[in-house]
Amino acid sequence: MRYVDFTNVMTTHRMSRYLTACGGDSRKAMTLYRKNLLLSQELFTIIGCFEIALRNVINEHYLITLGNDWLQRASLVGGIFNNQHCRLTNKAIDEAINKLGQNYGHSKLVAELGFGFWRYMFAPHQFAGARRTLLQIFPSKPVSTPAIQYNNSYIFNQLAEINKIRNRIAHHEPICFTSFQAVKNTQYVRQNYSLILQLFQWMNIDEQSLLYGLDHISSVCTGIDIL
Length: 227
What we know:
The protein is mainly α. The protein has one domain. The chain is 63% helix and 0% strand. The protein contains 12 helices and no strands. The chain is elongated, with a radius of gyration of 21 Å. The two termini are 19 Å apart.
């Protein structure tokens, strides 16, 4: 496809960053755009696996510590999330239950709730309301030091970084540039990818076996780096 035809579809404004990053080479700009799409697809797959693993581990932990239907009961009057501090968490549960309607089931409710919801299980009030036990899902987490506290706030903030790049991909924003610059750079992706692998390891999940045949992040990043 000619660059002019490509921009008629993707818009000149959207492609300007790619063109600048490629020194005005329109063919390379189109290649970089396609490679960014491929990288987004690859990383979204990895994030999807991580999201499912995380929510399942959280759910299994709370099924043991809080009992069956812990999510539904948490949102009822007197429930652990039925308070002003956890109102958005409570609202998310209620809305998901209403959406499921007659198809409600605990496992379906777990699947209905998004990444942001599970991240907030590590927020101060949600973490405290659910008995401060959730860090047990990371049995291989490092021991805290005076320099770094590997507590719920640390996990909350790390998950925020994954959530940010997940949302960038979901909103079709590029992930192959230095922030706010027309400079090709895969460091942002590599850092988040490494973070995901680290959290898998902290959960004692064999990430290499889990992602077998799915994980091509390093090779795609390298392809962008040498373009």
